[in-house]
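Lab channel / #folding
Pinned by the channel admin:
"Please post every new chain as: sequence first, then the structure tokens as a reply. Keep commentary short and put observations after the output so the thread stays searchable."

First post following the new format, from NK:
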Amino acid sequence: MKKVKNEISKEKSQKELEYEKLSLFFDNCINNGKLITKSASISGMIRLPYVKGKDLKKFFTENFDEIKQEILSITNIDIGKENDINSLNKFYEINQKHNIFHYLKRYPGDKAKYPKKLMSLQKNDDINLELNFTENGFYSLNIKTEKSKKPLIYLTLLIFLILFVVLFPIMPLKIKFGVLYFLLGITLFLLGLFILVFIAAILGLLIGYDIIIMGNIDNYKLSWKDRIFKQFLYIKKREDPCWIKMIRIIMIISFTQMGIIAYFNPSVPREVFGSMKDYIIKGYQYLIKKIEDYHYSKNELKVKGKYNLNDL
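Reply from TO:
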């Protein structure tokens, strides 16, 4: 009897562990924008997140390989080799047994795409609605969610920004110069990155390839880490029409001519580079002068009819 109890307890703890891992998987997918969820009042009592059947099917179809690997690593169950309805039903069955998904239905007369109120199955309803997946249904998402630290980070940054703006007039001159150096460094870095991306795109156009650096940088569904490093460099052969190929030949000839001119007349690129350098130095000196004028005008004190311009 004791052995049977131990086996039941062990099985229960294993199922709880799998539930926590599945919860973490779904939570990460929601935070990364892979799975669309809404929230609704369930039977007028509690408010829970839910997922529409069509959105769940789309999520499964677009992320089949990742889902298959995660389910296999968590539950040691293979949901199937093909991305088909049988694999989807197996995926739903596993999560339904782990208390992740539960079928919900609309209130009579509610035709909203994403209802604000849903209800659980009643005694007289067909139990197969709970056991079998249907893309026309709604499913409560019973998972443990980790609270995001982003709101706290944003609040902290906002407080530092407000304090910086308020205290900037009375800061020492060295700190003001430090801010200038920091902003100048960030500007030069972004400018260099833009030039690198532009050169890579032009080079790819010349050799017949798409060369894209950080192609997912504007994908809000991904985390910042994935935006930058998930396919940091994308290279794919282009299939261009004839007129694009003609433009490519003209560009190659033009760049070749520019290279020949620069080789036999090195003074030309030197003058261009020198002009750019002069403009940068003049702009830098102008900002330095403005910061000094601003600093001393804010820190001057009138003592016995005279101004003391020393730093406070």
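NK: The chain has two domains: 13-141, 167-308.
TO: also worth noting, Confidence is low (pLDDT under 50) at residues 301-312.
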